[in-house]
Amino acid sequence: MGEEAQSHAPLVTVLAERTLPADRSEGACKVELPAALTQPRATDAHFMQGHAPHGRRFVKGEPATMTAIALDFDAPDHAMTPAWAAETQAKIEALLAAHRGGFGYMTKNGARVVWAIEPVAISDAESACNWSRRYLSFVAYLRRCWQLEADALHDHTRLFRLPFVVRDGVAQRPLTIGDPRAIGALDWAPTAEDEAAAAEAWPRIFDGTSTPPLCGTDQPPASRPQRIEGSVTATRGVLYDLLARRGDIRSPHDLGDGSEAFHVRCPRADRHSPGTGDDALLIASHGGGPGWITCRHNGCAGLEPADWLALLGVTQRVGKVARWFINAAPRGVGIRLALDLLPEDRGAPMPYVRVSSGTPAWSALWRAADVEAPSDLDHDGDLGDALRELRGRRLLIESDNGRTRRILTAPARERVAA
Ligand SMILES: [Zn+2]
C-alpha cells in the first residue's frame, strides 16, 4: 500500500464491521478519506474520524490523530419519510455550498455529512474533551444557522457507517450530495454564541466535571412487573432451549450432514393418535434461527418453527423505547439497563427489559436497535449518547411465557396510505 508520509489526503480508520474489537488488526486499516467514501465494501464497514499509529480501532486513552468530522441527522422517530428526506437533502446542499469540501449521503433512517479537517491530535483527556466541545459547538451552529438537528456524537472514538456497504445483506447505493473525491477541510470556527449554546446543553462536558459512570440511578417504580431477567442469545436456537427446559431433549442424533440434531419428545405428543409414540426430531440452529422440529405424526407434519414457538408459549411484541433506568449490575461490574417499552400493539404494558453491560444481551440490544454500542459506561459520554439515540427505537422482544428471550430488530412498520 502507499507510503503514508507521502499521502496528502486525510487518513481515516476503516473497520470491516462495527463490532470489530480494538485489539484486532484483521479487518482494520487506514484508508484515505476519499477512497473510504467511494469504494464499495463487501461488509457493513464503518469508519472513524481519524487514525491511531497502530492502524486499528482506537479507544479512549490512546493517542490518535483526527482528520475528519462526521455528523448524523436522524429522521424523527427514526422513520424516514419522503418529505423529511427532501427537506434534509435541500438543507445539506445549502450547507455544503457554504462550507465547501463536504460530502453528504442519505442513510436508512437519516443522513450523514463528512468533511476533512486540519489534523487534531488527541493525546490526553483534555484534548479528547476539547474535541467533544468543538463537535458540540458545531452541532449548535448547525441548529442555529441551518436548522439541522445533528446527533451529539461527540466522542472522538465514534464509528460511522460508510456509504457503499452491505447492510443486512443488501448492497447500499445511497443518494449522495457533493463529490467525495474532492473532499476538503471544513472551514469553520466556533462562535461564542454556539459555544455558549453547546455549554448550556452539555454543561458537564464544558465545565470539565464529566465523570464516569452511573449518573441518575433512578429505581423503576415498583408497580410495574419486574420479573424479566435479561435476555440470552440461544446458542442452539430457542426451540432447543424450550424443549430442554421441559426435559424433552432425549439424545443426540447424527443426521450425517454435520448439523446437530436431537431426538425429542414432540410438544404436541398429547395430540398424536393413541399408540403411535411421542417421538420427534429437533435440528438445532447455530445461526440465530429458532431451529426446526420434524414430527411425522398426524397434525404435526406441516408445522413450521413459528407454529411450534406459539405452541410453546413464545410471543413476539414490538415496543418503542420510551425511557430507561440505570442500576449497578448485580455482580458489581458494569451497569444494568432497564428499558421501558411502549407496546406497538397498544396491549398490556410490556415488562421491563433488563440488560446488563458486557453480556450477549447487551450486544443484542444495540444490534437490534441499530445504535452503535457505547464504548464506555460514562453517562456524560458514549453511554449517554447511545441512550439518547436509543430513545424512540423499535425493538422486537421475544418472550417465552413472560420472560424475555431475545431482543431482535423490529420489522419495518407497515405504512397506511393517506
Ligand atoms: Zn408431533
Commentary on this structure:
It is a single chain. The protein has three domains: 201 residues, no CATH class; 74 residues, no CATH class; 96 residues, OB fold (Dihydrolipoamide Acetyltransferase, E2P) (Beta Barrel). Strand 19 and strand 20 form a beta hairpin. The N terminus is likely disordered. The protein starts with 10 loop residues before the first strand and ends in a 9-residue tail after the last strand. It has nine helices and 20 strands. By secondary structure, it is of the alpha+beta class. The chain is 22% helix and 27% strand. A five-stranded antiparallel beta sheet has the order 4-5-7-6-11. The structure holds zinc ion (ZN). The site of zinc ion (ZN) has 7 residues, from loops.
Task: Please outline what is shown here.
It contains nine helices and 20 strands. The protein is of the alpha+beta class. It has three domains: 4-204, no CATH class; 238-311, no CATH class; 314-409, OB fold (Dihydrolipoamide Acetyltransferase, E2P), CATH 2.40.50.
